[in-house]
Amino acid sequence: MDPVEKAVDILRNTKGVVGVFIMDDDVSNKVLAEERSVISITGMDVQNIAFEEVMKREHRVCIIYDNGFFEEPKGTPVIMIVNSSNEVVGTAVPEDMFEEYSKRNDIIWVSDDFVLFTNSNTDGTERFVLPPCKYDALSEKDGCRDAIFSSPATTSDILMKNHFGVSTCQKTSTIVIGFNKL
């Protein structure tokens, strides 16, 4: 079986997955353009480095999922706030790192899973950054390598759902996985 077909089959049979769609360059570039235009509700720029990296992979797959699919990556934040010097001034705290962060005295918890660093420099040019995260469910044994995922902005989520004919009224989310063939 071709690695792309095998990856689609693996993903389609993963708990919580509602749909799996191979992304061609046309829809991928539309999502990339949308991701590059995103500004947060607070007015900060959003830089989806993860999607930029997904675009460097040979193959991209859009996953439509419900709450049962996505597991937060261990040890890797899914979003950070970065200043103009690329210093991390705030970060989502992965669940497996809560205990480590709870012992720190140089942070302020601004939500149940997000902290700001009290010793960081802010200059008004901060931006949200979504870093690439490994996606371990696709591996070399499946004919895949360098698998990573990106969580898209709400507007990109809607764009992909419309493109693939998925109702935007469903309580589902999207994630994009990029990988190379061996």
Write the layout of secondary structure elements.
Blueprint lengths: L2 H10 L4 E6 L2 H12 L8 E3 L1 H6 L4 E7 L14 E3 L5 E5 L5 H5 L4 E5 L2 E4 L9 E3 L3 E2 L9 E7 L3 H11 L8 E9 L1
Parallel strand pairs: 2-8
Antiparallel strand pairs: 1-3, 3-11, 4-5, 4-8, 5-7, 6-7, 9-10, 10-11
Description:
With 182 residues, the protein is α+β, with helices and mostly antiparallel strands. It contains five helices and eleven strands. It has two domains: 101 residues, no CATH class; 48 residues, no CATH class. Strands 2-8-4-5-7-6 form a six-stranded mixed sheet, with no helix packed on it. Strands 1-3-11-10-9 form a five-stranded antiparallel sheet. 28% of the residues are buried.
What is the helix/strand order? HEHEHEEEHEEEEEHE
Tally of DSSP β-strands:
11
Shape: globular
From the alpha carbons, calculate the radius of gyration and give it in angstroms. Answer: 17 Å
Give the averaged pLDDT, no decimals.
Answer: 92
Largest beta-sheet characterization: 6 strands, mixed
- What proportion of the residues form beta strands (DSSP E)? 25-35%
Low-confidence spans: none
What structural class do you assign from the helix and strand content? alpha+beta
Spatial order of strands in the largest sheet: 2-8-4-5-7-6
